Amino acid sequence: MLSIILLGIVIYGNTLPNGFTYDDHFQIEQNEALRTWSQFVHRTSLYRPLTKLTWFADYHLWGLNPLGYHLTNLILHILASIALYSFVWRLLRRHWSAWAASIIFLAHPVHTESVASVANRGDVLAAVLVFSAWALMTTERPARWTTAGACGLFLLALLSKETTAVFPVLLLAQRRLLPAGQGRERTPLSTDLKLVSPLLVLSAIALGYAGCKLFITWGTFGQTWGSMGHSLSGGRSYGEILITELGAVPVYLRLLVAPSGLRADYYFPSDAPLHGMDAWLGLVFVAGLITIACLMLRRAATVSIGLLWFILFMLPVSNIVPGAFFVAERYLYIPSGGFCLIGAVALDRLRRAGAPSAMRFQWGATALLAVVTLSFSWLTISRNREWRDDLVLWRATLRENPLSAPARTNLGLAEMARKNYHEAIYHLEQAVALRPDLAEPHNNLGAAYGEAGRSLDAVAQFSVAAAIAPQVPKFRYNLALAHKEAGQIDSAIRELVRVVELWPEFAGAHYELGLLYLEAGDLEDARRHFALSGRNARDEPDENGSGRTNTR
């Protein structure tokens, strides 16, 4: 245990001086719900509430000092590695295998996005809880209190990240294929089903809630998948999304085996051939993984469990429910545990391959583990530095992925925050060139033009954003402010009227209308909108529309 703790501090200690990056700004710095308990209760939805509660606790311990938040992530990652050790030891009863799996997991570079980013804490927290629940349930006949404890931990895991809902299926498969502690007798299927049934009920409730939320957000059952896919994935149909996701499979496998070229955004062009080599290669890899898992059922059931672990935990993030990303390193945090288990078992087989006196096998396996751990540790430490701030992060992303519109956008916004308007405009213009079909890049470029004093250019970009997404109030609001800055008062009033029609409670729009009507001498309308502004005062979209929320 001590070696896991010390190695975790060595590998991730250099994240402590890092600042907030990427979605940390939205989730932490700009999140008013963290300020007081009443605001937290009032504003926090049931979407991953436990993760948000840890942010709330950090805020009241550390304020907006990033060091404390990164320290929490570091501790959680070490705890996840210890929980993995506990599970593997209970499963195999081999300390060396458990230690090797936990060390590989601890050092793996693909985990930097989850550990170095505060906004991605949900992956790490969920792993701590689900690995701990799995360890508790990995006994021949768990006691009632053990099952109750595992159910409690699993419930907390679901409240951290809903993708853990597949855990009961994996637990049932593990109990059927590989009883706890090799050599033990397999329990009857009815016993295992009865044991796992409370966890299955929790999963069903979580999935039912998530499904209802999706349908409420996106429309009726028949429209949900199509509308989500079109909105979140560059205009693709649902079938196109699934085919594109097949092309992501080789990328994920490469990241597990050879984790180089890590980046915060992976480029999948929306006009790529649907039946290209990537999709076929992905299909071959999926078929290969399933085939190997089946072939290993009798010869090496642990390998089958590891592959099933990877496959099942990848399913929820594989765009079966459409999301905004085809590849994200954070999606591998929990699934990578299966890869670590397979690697540890393979090394332990090598270590025990010769006669008990054949020390060369033991030293060879230990040396190979040391090489892997040192290599992974070096890559992780180097990658942690790239999460130091937004400028470093997005420049590093563009080096690996120069066609990334999100990287251009976020680098432009980072430059704009530092008032480097020339650099900001350059990157935001590149983002518009890469994705002219999206409203947000035009909106961000309009904000940069406005800050640089180019009012008419700002009007042009905000007009395009409002035309692409006419029902989004913030684009019309920004357009109205640009009209006002350019001296086009009538146009500003016209756009603000449309804004309050779309969002009658938008206090800022009412206030701006009041000012414009007052300037125009219309005292009655000015008083009316000032009154509505005071009555409806609440949070509103930021004026430059630079929020960078992602479906994660």
TrEMBL record:
Name of protein: Uncharacterized protein
TPR repeats: 405-438
Coiled-coil regions listed: none
Family matches, as SMART domains: TPR
Organism: candidate division TA06 bacterium DG_24
Signal peptide segment: none
SUPFAM superfamilies: TPR-like (SSF48452)
Superkingdom of origin: Bacteria
